[in-house]
Amino acid sequence: MLISQVGEFALIKRFRKAIRTDASVIVGSGDDCAVLAHDKKHYQLFTCDMLVEGVDFKSCEDPYLIGRKAIAVSVSDIASCGGLPRHAVISLGMPKNTPLKFIDTLFKGMMSVARKYKINIVGGDLSRAQSIVIDVSMLGLAEKKNLLLRSRAKKGDIIFVSGALGGSIRGKHLKFIPRLKEAQFLVRNFKVNSMIDVSDGLAQDLNHILEESKVGAVIYEKSVPLSKDALNLDEALYMGEDFELLFTVPPKEAKSLRQHRNFRPIGEILDKSLGLSLMDKNGRARKLALKGFRHF
Amino acid sequence: MLISQVGEFALIKRFRKAIRTDASVIVGSGDDCAVLAHDKKHYQLFTCDMLVEGVDFKSCEDPYLIGRKAIAVSVSDIASCGGLPRHAVISLGMPKNTPLKFIDTLFKGMMSVARKYKINIVGGDLSRAQSIVIDVSMLGLAEKKNLLLRSRAKKGDIIFVSGALGGSIRGKHLKFIPRLKEAQFLVRNFKVNSMIDVSDGLAQDLNHILEESKVGAVIYEKSVPLSKDALNLDEALYMGEDFELLFTVPPKEAKSLRQHRNFRPIGEILDKSLGLSLMDKNGRARKLALKGFRHF
């Protein structure tokens, strides 16, 4: 049996079942970040993301943008848990014949994002490898009252996204701006019940919220904001790497949140028994396929 | 210009120069772990290590041992800073056609070390890759008074190692036991001035202490404990992956420490101007070459 026959999410579940954690772990594997006890007011957030040549970027792409992305994906994870990024370590595997210019530019891209969000790069590991692989681990802090998880969506919540979706492969996946400012605005001004960032596609990431929160949902086709790079709705639903915030708020909050153009309501949280469906322009609902980006 | 023409350590220095950190960073890039402000009594330690197929292990090797090593190298880093490991995240890149059995056994190896040292595995990232690559990031805690760095060796200190060196490629590099117990014994019972773990070879790792502490040293050839796997002294000096503790203590402490058979005195810290030399059995000193394991 090969891992490709098991699938990415089944593999993760397999590993998670075997893991035991102590009381210092508020939320372990299974959310955008791990949540650890820190001090009276704060949790510490801990996340890692691996970027692999040929999967997350091509070697012909601008190394500055690859470096940006390597840091930005972790910032997006911290943001979607309601925290601020603080410290990061970087592991970098690369072939011996990598041009110095490539690595220098990659590093400049990394530093540009680190500086922008006041992230301390505090260590790393360089290794020889067959192709380029970058792993960034990041620590952040979230005020306890601001912590956002996938697991707290409630029936009746309105589902929002922070921007247009789809077509990220045509550029946005390397140039996206992590929605840290937006996430902080939300936690400071609204009651948000659940949040995730869209990395694997709207359908699949919304499904993570549904599974963890034990609820269902309907998405309104006409409300899903399509990116100018998106060729069709399917790309908005399934392509991934949009790195927009996907979150749910109680109906009362939704009213005032609708006035902020940055945040678009796209659906509603329903009872678990109703699963995940898409309602078309004629008011007909169909079950939404749970495909999206998967490594295996 | 290729990175292989620049070399691993020059590359690291290049990056470090561009990095700025704030007051939360007690020690940034350049030691076994980053040291971060935590609470009144403790520092937080943060380290990452990337293991790459074909460099750190071969795909034909027992995946259980590969998994063990992936966690143990980070435990060794935390130990050598005087801390205890607490939390880890694991990024794992692997080809689609990896057998499930391989990954299951790798994971079992990881968990065996995690359980032994009470490390919480709190998250991870799975990615498709051309070959297997494992990156582990680990957090630990060190009592402030117990923090050990590379940078505090003093002239007159006696240099110790925690075990025999050399020949690790013949098995020990996959089976070593990180010296956490020994490091904790040392910080609780002795005044230790500096410490590092031997990952790149005695000469090169001692040189890290010398550079960071701005001192020199002499190693006594007759005192270097050779592992049963070591073919000759050169392997003890240059092979690396021994994962023994290399540390320095003031002469007074050395006296009582000599009575513990686990710790062997192998040399002495001297003035910086004397560099790093090896004294042979006839009392003749020669400059020690600074070779050892390097990725580039």
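Chain A has a mean pLDDT of 96.
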